């Protein structure tokens, strides 16, 4: 480059620093080929642009404790999944800490989940394990939708499809709430 260097006043769009925009990790659980288990994947595809601008979508299949351990202590996340035990299509939103408290209370009462492979721990157990290893529950929000059909090769059930707008809105609200923290 030759010639004089332009002054800052000659460049009105010149910034002296680069704005850092942090994004909220959104851990999307589910298997795309298993009916309602794909609801989280369908929902994040429908998120509005303003929510997507603040989200870092991470498709995880099954939530692994390592994803939570990698988060800085003050960084909130959103965990999205389809849930058995709710009315199909019903949206359920809870702080992650509340799920940890529930898992611990059930374990203390001797009513923990049945033993199964450690490769597919229930989300509450994964969150409780992360809380133990981090000395505090992970910050953030769980957003779930009730499902009814988990068969391989089936599409989303009609109640889940009907519930997607509320599910998407709840995910977007959680992302926006944590983006402002």
Question: What does this 3D model show about the protein?
Answer:
This protein has a five-stranded mixed sheet with strand order 2-1-3-5-4. The protein has six helices and five strands. The longest helix is centred in the last third of the chain and has 22 residues, at 158-179. It is globular and about 40 Å long. Helix 1 (39-45) packs across helix 6 (158-179) and helix 4 crosses helix 5. The protein is of the alpha/beta class and 181 residues long. The N and C termini lie far apart (43 Å). It is 36% helix and 18% strand.
Compact description:
This protein is of the alpha/beta class. It has helices at 39-45, 49-54, 65-69, 96-108, 123-134, 158-179; strands at 24-29, 55-61, 77-83, 91-95, 140-146.
- Secondary-structure element order, N to C: EHHEHEEHHEH
Number of contiguous helices: 6
- Average residue-wise pLDDT: 85
Indicate the overall shape: globular
Largest sheet: spatial strand order: 2-1-3-5-4
Assign the structural class, choosing from mainly alpha, mainly beta, alpha/beta, alpha+beta, or little secondary structure. Answer: alpha/beta
Q: How many strand elements?
A: 5
CATH fold assignment = Rossmann fold
Distance between the termini: 43 Å
| Percent range of helical residues | 25-40%
User: Stretches where pLDDT falls below 50 for ≥5 residues?
Assistant: 115-119
CATH class: Alpha Beta
Which CATH architecture would you pick? Answer: 3-Layer(aba) Sandwich
- The radius of gyration computed from the alpha-carbon positions, rounded to a whole number of angstroms, is 20 Å
């Amino acid at each position: 480059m030759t010639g004089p260097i332009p002054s800052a006043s000659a460049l009105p769009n010149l910034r002296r620093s680069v704005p850092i925009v942090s994004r909220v990790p959104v851990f999307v659980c589910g298997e795309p080929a298993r009916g309602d288990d794909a609801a989280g994947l369908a929902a994040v595809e429908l998120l509005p642009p303003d929510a997507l601008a603040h989200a870092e979508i991470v498709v995880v299949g099954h939530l692994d404790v390592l994803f939570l351990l990698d988060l800085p202590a003050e960084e909130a996340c959103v965990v999205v999944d389809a849930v058995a035990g709710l009315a199909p299509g019903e949206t359920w939103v809870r702080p992650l800490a509340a799920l940890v408290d529930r898992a611990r209370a059930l374990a203390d009462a001797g009513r923990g989940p049945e033993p199964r492979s450690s490769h597919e721990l229930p989300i509450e157990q994964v969150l409780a394990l992360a809380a133990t290893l981090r000395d505090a529950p992970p910050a953030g929000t769980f957003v779930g939708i009730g499902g009814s059909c988990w068969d391989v090769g089936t599409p989303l059930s009609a109640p889940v499809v009907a519930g997607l707008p509320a599910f998407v809105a709840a995910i977007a609200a959680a992302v926006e709430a944590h983006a402002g923290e």
